[in-house]
Amino acid sequence: MRDLERLDPDELDVLLGLRPKSDIPPAARRSMEEVGIIGPGEGGVPTGSLGRQPAALVRAALTGTKGPLVSRWGHILLRRVLASRLSAPADMDPAEFVALRAGLLNRIGEYPAARALAQNVDTVDWSPALADAAITAYLATGDILGTCPLARFSRDMRDDVQWRMLRDICAAYSGEAARARANLKRIRRGDAVENIDVLLAQRFAGAAGQSRGAVNLEWDGVDELTPWRFALASALGAEIPDRLTDDENSYFQYASAISPALSATARMPGMMRGTGAGIFSANALIDLYSQYYAENGTEGDLGARAVQLRNAYVAADPTARVAAIDRLWGTGEMDYASRVLTAYAAARIPPSEALSDRAGPLIGSMLTAGLDRDALEWGNVVPEGSLGWALLALARFDGDNSVGGGAVRSFVEDDDSGGQRRSQFLVAGLAGLGRIDEGTRDDLSDTLNMSLGGATHWARLIDSAAAADNQALVALLAGVGMQGTGWDKMTPRHLYHIVAALDRVGLRAEARMIAAEAVYRG
What we know:
Strand content: under 5%
Number of helices: 29
Distance between the termini: 73 Å
Order of helices and strands: HHHHHHHHHHHHHHHHHHHHHHHHHHHHH
Radius of gyration: 26 Å
Largest sheet: none
Number of strands: 0
Structural class: mainly alpha
């Protein structure tokens, strides 16, 4: 009897065979045949896109992308495909397929999408890999209690200390606060986990009520910030020592950006970085500046930028609005987010000869948000061979889109980018979109000392996927080919194959935007 009394309710349920196997009633169980967030009618790719593809190829495409993409538009496309409602390849377990997709979403910073994808699968069907991907997403989004259905009903999924602490936190919020406190005290007395991790768990569990004492967080001796520590500290509103924060760590920046517990000031660096990467939209960034302005007015650097953002929209004349836009822009890769921030303001500038020298940057800003119709209004203003002309030559979707070699050579002659990378990307993009003939392509390639030919294994795969008219597989392979932290990691040959494949399978808008982005940022 004493042994039974020492068992917690979950252990007793297991012993007596009373523990439910799932938090979903059998009649409400969801099929694993199709899993995803968006259907074909909502912008997703066809459901059966990967059903007949070899599992090894799909697995390689999903695991081959290890981190961020150089292209904002490439990121947006990859996210859309990963979040689509898809059937697994015939020879792949559906749970593995979802786990691979959720894992890739996590690796590119799309934690809310990874969480939503995992939530489309009943926890009883989760594999250990899917559970790991889901827990990563739950912690990054600050949704600690989102792990509870898994922690309570799949106790044996993991056996590490973090898993036991999660189970105790969930127990506290299920009315078993006393049992949770006792278990966490036992964990703290052991040596399997650092003290700060248990203290955070104790304070979070104590917030469920019936806590008998305060828990003081002791950061002395802590030399590393982990996802567990960041998630719990942020949710609790606990201050993290400055010495532990790393401004260059994308995980903590992106997690900060989506944390409702943090101030607009704390969220802004991650929001800026994520906007440049393609995680957040121009509207989301504008909303955060608006929140800061509402809370703090013109205080600090962010307040001054908020004022300039307002002027970019409502200043009395176009010249003043362009001046405000210029003040918002900086230089460098991180400041690409500022170009996204001003996209809609740039679209409000009426085309004029007086502003022709600013046309290129303004058009580039518009295209960061896909405002190609607004950008094309500058077609009669931009000089042939200028940056604005090059961007419109790639972004144009109406009428005859062919481009003459003479105009491209004018651009090449004025190109001062490193290694004439912009010119190389322009030729690759135009060739991929079929807007220059083969002779012009080859002549320009010789001039720029580059080659768009030569079939690598990756190039053969993406070309074959395009020939099969498979949008999903083309997008996944494009993601593999666009990995990197900057456009200096992209080659003209890769860009050519990506743009050509996307255009061939009907993803023409994405192909145009990626090609234009390459020239703008190259």
